[in-house]
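Please fill in the sequence for the structure shown.

STRUCTURE ENCODING:
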């Protein structure tokens, strides 16, 4: 009984001090947004040429046990520097919140690429403009985030940053099977000694998206800095 009470006390102690709930929301939002949000395009090369029209389409995630096991293994490796009790509580949250989105949507309007974001609160879209301005916004909890598109040798890159985590996603269309491959890199900054979590997800193209409705979404209007207070 004494041991059980001690464990309960320790559990409450770590829950109160580890912002895992906030991290969960941050990671879920970053993955939903297309796998989204950051800062400078460090490591990107704007002189690279990528045919952005190749990304056009409604892409659905390919369920793959091997890929899922690789993601879970990456989480376990990233948490290796934590104490066992921190791993015990952080692992299930990260396993749940790092699951890739079920779909990714890009629209090619004939001259520019847009990323379509679909949520219960309504659809929106944003211009995919490698090397362009950083986009500032707030998630559904009212927490600030930033994101910027860039080109890298591996593909189309989206770097993101938000309160308790940073990272980037690299999108590329596989030339062999024409699937969309996304490399996710997530760095939790709220807790020390967590290594970057790196894993892949793959999507198949279902169909193209009609660009006509884009104008109704007030697309690509970056929020001015005043709105970030």
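FILLED IN BY: designer on duty
SEQUENCE:
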């Amino acid at each position: 009984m004494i041991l059980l009470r001690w464990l309960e006390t320790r559990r409450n102690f770590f829950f109160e001090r580890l912002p895992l709930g906030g991290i969960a929301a941050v990671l879920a939002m970053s993955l939903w947004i297309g796998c989204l949000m950051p800062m400078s395009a460090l490591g990107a090369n704007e002189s690279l040429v990528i045919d952005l029209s190749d990304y056009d389409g409604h892409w659905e995630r390919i369920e793959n046990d091997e890929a899922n096991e690789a993601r879970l293994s990456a989480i376990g490796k990233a948490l290796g520097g934590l104490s066992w009790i921190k791993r015990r509580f952080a692992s299930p949250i990260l396993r749940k919140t790092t699951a890739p989105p079920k779909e990714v949507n890009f629209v090619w309007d004939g001259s520019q690429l847009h990323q379509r974001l679909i949520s219960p609160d309504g659809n929106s879209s944003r211009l995919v403009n490698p090397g362009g301005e950083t986009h500032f916004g707030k998630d559904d909890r009212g927490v600030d985030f930033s994101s910027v598109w860039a080109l890298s040798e591996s593909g189309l890159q989206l770097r993101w940053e938000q309160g308790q985590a940073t990272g980037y996603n690299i999108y590329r269309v596989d030339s062999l099977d024409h699937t969309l491959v996304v490399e996710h890199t997530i760095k939790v900054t709220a807790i020390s000694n967590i290594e970057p979590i790196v894993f892949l997800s793959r999507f198949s193209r279902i169909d193209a998206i009609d660009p006509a409705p884009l104008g109704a979404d007030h697309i690509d209007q970056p929020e001015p800095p005043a709105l970030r207070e």
